[in-house]
Amino acid sequence: MHLPRLRTVIPFAAACLAVSALVALPAQAATVRYEAENATNAQGVVEANHLGFSGSGFVNSANAAGPYTEWTVNAPAAGTATLAIRYANGTGAARTADVAVNGTVVSAGRSFGPTANWDTWTTSTLTAALQAGDNKIRVTATSSGGNPNLDYLDITTADVPASECQAEAATLSQAAVATNHTGYTGSGFVDYVNAVGGSIEWSVNVAEAGSHTLTFRYANGTTVTRPMDVAVNGVTTGMSFPGTGSWDTWADGRVTVNLNAGVNTVRATATSSDGGPNVDRLSVSGPAGPDGQPPTVPTNPQVTGVSATSISLTWTDSTDNVSVTGYRVYEGTSVVATSPTAAATIAGLAAGSTHTYTITALDAAGNESGHSAAVTGTTSGGTSGPTADQLLAKVTTCSQISNGKYKTDSDVSTATVAVCDKTGAVFWKGDMDIDCDGVRTTQCNENTDCCFLPDTFCHTTSDTPLNAAQLPYMVVPSPSSIWDYRTKGIGCGTVVAVVYNGQVAYTVMGDTGPSGIIGEASYRTAADLGINPDPSNGGTDSGVTYIVFTGTGTKVSTIESHSQAVTLGRTLAQRFIDTN
Fold first, then answer.
1. HSE-up of 399 (CA within 13 Å, CB side)?
2. How far apart are CA 30 and CA 195, in angstroms?
3. What is the C-alpha to C-alpha distance for residues 579 and 462, in angstroms, rounded to an integer?
4. Which helix (H) or strand (E) holds 571?
5. Contact of 233 with 265, CB cutoff 8 Å
6. Cβ neighbours of residue 447 under 8 Å, at least 6 residues apart?
7. Hey, what's the torsion of the CAs at 157, 162, 164, 170, to 10 degrees?
């Protein structure tokens, strides 16, 4: 639905050294949180109308047997893991569900007992065997009441006696960081260019000289083996990386080498014209490997101050068998701050907005603790902005500026939607189709969306496609003789108020669609408005009003920052009310 853009190749240089563990090394033994609102949900909607949830919402399933929530979770190694399902059940009766791992039910008819009310959350904990790599964990309702409200799934795995170095944090040549395939760990993977000589170079620190195993986690979606030379401190060994079935399927390639005590250089260089495979990470293990014990979980998290745009936190220091080197602050599964001490301030927030955080500790070897208890704070000031009714009262009549009208879908026979002009905005009223283009996620990919494209017209500030499953954005028709959005100064990052069923969602222009069709928004926009976001059968046929603000000061500076869109959107919406 848009013109593809060329990706920018950015050089990265970060060593997998103990001194840089805060940036370069992921968790080895940690509790990882997976929010329900980011999972695959069948017959369930994301809501935020009860208190105490983590992340940006929770999942409310239909009142029937069969709805499910399914997470894709990654285990660093095969073994037993602890699964903690956080839920709320404000009824007086238990709700039952089957919990399945990779298609096998591991807890049949599991009882999720009642909680005091829908604002009270509790955790149901079980253990299950996970395979190394990706695992599908599904909670399926087995009673007519459906699932309880589901907040998140915490996965705790055993220690892995290996030092893990993300490829995206290494030094790259003729290769770039990418996120357009699923199943990677860390913040992305490395995609070689199709040429001889591309390389990824890590600096690896081990405690003692001797034999170690290098494990490369890679994907090769072709049927042709892609060889590479692996040079350790200048000594080269050839390795083959055969096809893995698809670019979303990851496998491990291993080689045994001798490492020196201290810092070692490991370089993987493509030797064929096809380049190397996609590389996710390098794991280094051995009888004298690095510290594998994580710090203790941070305790006593507290909000110590708020402003209109920030929340300040403190917590009690963690301990470690060697030393604690720093902390990460999470909002849901996203790291929003790092700190070398037991305090942090999260800035750039919307006034009057509420945020829930957890904290983890890290040591010099890159081990990450489990998550602390959650702490919630609300920024000062702010307003919820004009109501849906106030906005709709200003768009009851249309001064048409489009040269004709748009269709709502390609298969309808009549064009019925006009673009209308107002002071400080244009608007139209119609349907909502689901845009799932951009970054591949569990919700948005070739399997969930027949028309999926791995790019969006607008890009983030780091020049990557937008994430339709996480970012609320809307779609404008590509310029045509009907209307050219650019004539009104509209572009990437322009703020839009989307009104539906008494609700207002502030989004940004993020993508362009067919030149003759109007009425489309991202998976996240639909979910936030209570519209079925499934790209295969979701959306709504009518009742959606799009108010696109025009004039100066109507674009956010960081398109991927939803808080910016909300803050600016409330201001622009009030100005729209006042001037019309």
1. 7
2. 38
3. 36
4. helix 562-579
5. yes
6. none
7. 180
Which two tokens mark 501? 């069923």
Task: Give how far Cα 279 sits from Cα of 220, 228, 241, 242, 249, Å.
Answer: 9, 12, 10, 13, 12
Strand partners, 329: 337, 359
Residue by residue, pLDDT tens for the chain (580 residues) are 333 322 222 222 223 543 222 233 333 445 788 899 999 999 999 999 999 898 889 999 999 999 999 999 877 666 778 888 999 999 988 899 999 999 888 888 898 988 989 989 998 888 788 887 788 999 999 999 999 999 999 887 654 444 678 899 889 999 999 999 988 888 899 999 999 999 999 988 776 677 788 889 999 999 999 999 999 999 999 999 998 888 988 888 888 888 887 778 999 999 999 999 999 999 887 543 445 567 888 998 988 887 777 888 999 989 887 678 889 898 876 788 888 888 888 887 777 777 888 899 887 666 788 888 888 887 776 556 788 999 999 999 999 999 999 999 988 899 999 999 999 999 999 999 999 999 998 889 988 888 899 999 999 988 899 999 889 999 999 999 999 999 999 999 999 999 999 889 999 999 999 999 999 999 999 988 889 999 989 999 999 999 999 999 999 999 998 888 888 998 899 999 989 9
Q: Specify whether the CB–CB gap between 288 and 161 falls below 8 A.
A: no
Euclidean distance between CA atoms 236 and 262, whole angstroms? 19
Nearest Cα neighbor of 451 from 463, 429, 433, 472 is 433
Nearest to 55 by CA among 334, 350, 359, 306: 334
Sign of CA dihedral 443, 449, 455, 461: negative
User: pTM to 2 decimals?
Assistant: 0.42
The CA dihedral of 243, 244, 249, 252, to the nearest 10 degrees, is: -100
Report the amino acid identity of residue 58: F
Secondary structure of residue 87 in the 3-state scheme: strand
Torsional sign, CA 512, 517, 518, 524: negative
Q: According to the 3-state scheme, what is the secondary structure of 96-152?
A: EEEEEECCEEEEEEEEECCCCCCCCCEEEEEEEEECCEEEEEEEEECCCCCCCEEEE
